[in-house]
Structure formats: C-alpha cells, structure tokens
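pls ignore typos typing on phone
guanosine-5'-monophosphate + seq
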Amino acid sequence: MATRISHDYRNGDLVLIAVLKGAFIFLADLMRALTIPVCIDFVQLSSYGTGIDSSEKPFLKKGVDADIRSKDVLIIEDIVDTGLTMAFLIDYIGTLGPRTIKTCAFLDKWERRKVEIRLDYVCQKVESGFLVGYGLDYDESYRALPEIYRLTV
Ligand code: 5GP
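k done
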C-alpha cells in the first residue's frame, strides 16, 4: 500500500490526517514505509465510549490544525465500520479547501456499511466482530497488542 501511495502522490503535496486515537500506530508504520515527503496532522472524534456500538453522529473533538488549502489530503483510519465517521470527515475536511481528498483504512468492515463511502486504500477487509490491538482499543485497553484480536464475551 505504501508503494502505491508513494507512486500515486509522487507529484503531490501530501498531508496524512489520522484519526485519533486508534490510527496512530498504523500512521506511524505507514508513513515510515512511504518514499515521498509527507506532513501529518490529527483529528479526534467522539469515541465509542466504553461500548462496542458505532456512534450514530460523530462529533469533532479536535479539528485540523495544519493549513491544508491546495494540499492533497489522505485521511488515515484504523477501521471503517458503518462509514459514518469517514463520511463526516470527508465533508468536514472538504470545507478546508484541500486540492484532493482520498481515504485510507487499515481495516474495512465492509459488510456493516450504513453510508456509501469510497475507500481508496485498504490493507485488509474483515468480517464483523469487535477487533482490538495495533492501536484499536476496548475501553482504552488492548491498544498496545502488536496484532489484531477479535474480542469475545
Ligand atoms: P464507523 O463510523 O465507520 O462506524 O466507525 C469508525 C470508528 O469506530 C473507528 O475509527 C473506530 O474508532 C471505531 N471502531 C469501529 N469498529 C471497531 C472495532 O472493531 N474495534 C474498535 N476498537 N473500534 C472500532
């Protein structure tokens, strides 16, 4: 994926905007595998709280700090589930005047989509179930696990 992104943006001015907190490990690995210069920034939205159900209406807790006017933005998500968060972010970032916006997710729970969104780069499609590890948490636990695990109750 990093090779593809590096190729696709070889003439671009790329800003990676990662979604806190879950995407920070994926961002760190991805940006180190790129062969082109990039800037990074972060956004944070209302989280799942302690539950495992997707919040219906994302709420922006931290917006973009960087000036992304005329830049190429790639939104970096840990996992896309209903798609509501990504749809919200595409709209929000679109208001900030970037040249292009594309989307990138480490994991894609494509079967659970509630809104149609285009994911330009996906590492792995996964089935439903609540996943933890590699930055993904359950009530702030398990983020440091080096691999992805499915939580069972
Ligand atoms: P969506 O808005 O697409 O329903 O959900 C996106 C967000 O929900 C992700 O950024 C992530 O924080 C959280 N999420 C969705 N599925 C999972 C999961 O299986 N495990 C964890 N830990 N978080 C998830």
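The chain is about 20% helix and 30% strand. The mean pLDDT is 94. more later
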